[in-house]
Structure to design on (160 residues):
C-alpha cells in the first residue's frame, strides 16, 4: 500500500496518496509494525509538504519520530522541516542527532553501501549553523575524505 501511495503521489494525486497512506497506517497499527508506521507517517509528511501544508507535514514527521526515535531518516526529515521553516535551532538539534544516529547505523553496516543519511546530515547541518557546519563537514570528510560535495561545502564555508 505504501508503494502504491508513493506512485500515486509521484503522479501528483496527493489526496489519493494520503487516503491510501491512512488505510495502510491503520493496518500497520493493528499489526504493531513500527517500521511501517514510521515510513507511512514520513510519507504523509512529505505529501503534506508538497501540498504546502508544512505545519501538518511537521506533525507527521514528529509522529514518525515518536515511533522510531533512533532513525536517522526521521531525524533528517524533522531537521529539514525545521530548516525550511527557518528554525535553525530546531534544525540544528535534529540534524546533529541525525548525524550521530546515521554514524551508528553506518558503523553497524545498515547503510554500508549507501551512506546518504550520514552525508545528508553533514550537508544540512552546514545550512543550519556556521559552527555546526564546520564541525559536521570536517566529521563527514573524516569518514569520506574524497567526497566532492563535502569538500565544496567546506571550501565555500571557509570562503564566506
Amino acid at each position: 500500500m505504501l508503494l502504491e501511495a508513493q506512485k500515486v503521489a509521484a503522479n501528483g494525486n496527493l489526496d489519493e496518496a494520503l487516503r491510501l497512506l491512512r488505510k495502510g497506517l491503520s493496518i500497520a497499527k493493528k499489526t504493531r509494525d513500527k517500521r511501517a508506521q514510521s515510513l507511512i507517517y514520513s510519507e504523509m509528511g512529505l505529501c503534506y509538504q508538497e501540498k504546502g501544508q508544512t505545519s501538518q507535514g511537521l506533525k507527521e514527521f514528529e509522529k514518525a519520530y515518536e515511533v522510531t526515535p533512533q532513525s536517522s531518516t526521521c531525524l533528517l526529515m524533522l531537521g529539514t522541516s525545521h530548516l525550511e521553516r527557518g528554525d535553525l535551532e530546531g534544525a540544528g538539534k535534529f540534524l546533529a542527532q541525525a548525524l550521530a544516529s546515521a554514524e551508528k547505523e553506518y558503523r553497524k553496516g545498515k547503510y554500508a553501501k549507501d551512506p546518504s543519511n550520514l552525508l545528508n546530515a553533514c550537508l544540512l547541518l552546514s545550512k543550519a549553523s556556521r559552527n555546526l557546519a564546520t564541525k559536521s563537514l570536517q566529521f563527514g570528510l573524516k569518514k569520506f575524505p574524497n567526497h566532492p560535495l563535502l569538500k565544496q561545502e567546506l571550501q565555500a564555508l571557509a570562503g564566506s
In short: The chain is about 80% helix and 0% strand. The chain has a mean pLDDT of 80. The radius of gyration is 17 Å.
